Automatic annotation (TrEMBL):
The organism's place on the tree of life at top rank: Bacteria
Record-given protein name: Phosphoribosyltransferase domain-containing protein
Listed InterPro entries: ComF/GntX_DNA_util-trans (IPR051910), PRTase-like (IPR029057)
Chain ranges passing through the membrane: none
Disordered: region residues: 174-194
Composition bias, Basic and acidic residues: 175-184
Length: 240
């Protein structure tokens, strides 16, 4: 049976790409007098939920302390910030909740920003990288009113290129591993909105969750077909 792009790989956490949790704790303590609300993750009444995307300080610390980040592929560089388990599962649900659009920039800054900087370092640039969001399913966009990958990407960079389009089809999350590979191949295709001469040389794919890597692998092939010379990918979470 053919294997997905990430199957059979040994994932290893890289603590050097994580923010300083003790410093964050002190900052949260200093700011805790500002307001109270109910946390979207644990339900406890605490502080700074609005500023932290609907999450309380302790839950944010739990997310930051979770296993990760993981370098899933070294060439191209494919990073997942955390394992899709525990608090991260609920955090992704909040990310997709139409009433909590502030969750995207918070999660992007806390989890993806350190990995984004690693890509900048590896590509030896301080310029904003061109972000390519992995498009959500048409049904998902309609039900939420937004594409969560675009919100994550916009929080990371001012430069966006919609190089990949997605047609109607079954959502990847309800499919088996083999079905995911087939679905990714048939429902993702190159966007022709950008003329060939305007295709960026280097781009970063951004998405929320990776499972088999079928979607990322297909999008990577599309980028190469369009003329992209080098690409990487940043994901909030990986299902291990």
């Amino acid at each position: 049976m053919p294997r997905g792009p990430l199957e059979g790989m040994t994932f290893s956490a890289d603590p050097s790409a994580s923010p300083d949790v003790p410093i964050l704790s002190r900052l949260l303590g200093m700011l805790s007098l500002l307001r109270t609300d109910s946390c979207e993750l644990c339900g406890e009444t605490s502080f700074l939920q609005d500023e932290l995307g609907g999450f309380c300080g302790p839950c944010v610390e739990d997310i930051l302390s979770a296993p990760g980040p993981f370098l899933l592929e070294s060439s191209p560089r494919v990073w997942a910030a955390r394992e899709y388990s525990g608090e991260m599962v609920q955090a992704i649900r909040v990310l997709k909740n139409p009433g909590h659009r502030k969750a995207a920039p918070v999660l992007a800054d806390l989890l993806l920003r350190p990995l984004y900087r690693k890509l900048q370092e590896s590509w030896m640039t301080e310029d904003d990288l061109v972000v390519v969001p992995v498009p959500a399913s048409p049904a998902g966009r309609r039900s939420r009113g937004f594409d969560q990958a675009r919100l994550l990407g916009r929080a990371l960079s001012s430069r966006e290129a919609l190089l990949v389009k997605r047609s109607r089809g079954r959502a990847q999350k309800v499919l088996s591993r083999e079905e995911r590979r087939e679905n990714a191949g048939s429902h993702f295709s190159p966007s022709r909105r950008i003329p060939p001469e305007a295709v960026p040389r280097r781009v970063v794919l951004v998405d929320d969750v990776v499972t088999t890597g079928a979607t990322i692998g297909r999008c990577g092939k599309i980028l190469q077909e369009l003329g992209v010379e080098e690409w990487g990918a940043l994901l909030l979470a990986v299902r291990l």
